[in-house]
Amino acid sequence: MEIKEILQLPLKDIKQHIHTLANEYKNITGGDVCLSCSGDVKRMLNFLKKYNMNTQFELRKPNVIYKIKWGDARTISNDKMTDELAIAFLKEKPSRIELFSKYPDNWKELLSGNSSNEEDNDEEKVPIKPTKKPCTTCKKKTANNSKRKSNDSK
Q1: Backbone torsion region of residue 30, taken as left when φ is above 0, otherwise alpha when ψ lies between -120 and 50, otherwise beta
Q2: Residue 121's domain spans which residues?
Q3: Contact at 8 Å (CB) between 47 and 18?
């Protein structure tokens, strides 16, 4: 299975291929990923998605984060941008097209197309659970943050 195919899987299925993705990440960046740290895994997945998946959409403001809809935890930003996410965002309110600097000419057709975004979005909420104890680097980060917080309160 190719990296692009793995990245399009629901999050719960990506977990089966996490070592393949970690190897790909190491080949591209030269850096290691702590697979027991959910933050590291999320950063790796976001990097690989951005690296391997070209999207037809781009927001005008590069560092902004919008909610897909009010009361929903899902968000959209250029860092997390996928065509499916942009379409879900636009389906809520098509006038949001003004927020994009780059979008396909047929964006209205994409909104009316049938898709299973609701099913995919439910599966994306499944958290990646650690498979082992945190690495020593992660333990040091946690210890340093705890020390800072205790020193800040004094």
Answers
A1: left
A2: 3-138
A3: no
Please compute the mean of the pLDDT values over residues 29-49 and round it to a whole number: 88
Bridge partners of 142, per DSSP, are none
Helix (H, G, I), strand (E, B) or coil at 67: strand
The three-state DSSP-derived secondary structure of 83-105 is HHHHHHHHHHCHHHHHHEEECCC
pLDDT range class, residue 122, cuts 50, 70, 90: very low
What pLDDT is attached to residue 115? 43
Q: What angle is formed at CA 25 by the lines to CA 43 and CA 59, rounded to 5 degrees?
A: 45
Separation CA 17–CA 150 (nearest Å): 39
State residue 148 phi and psi, 5-degree precision: -60, -45
Structurally, how many domains does the chain consist of?
Answer: 1
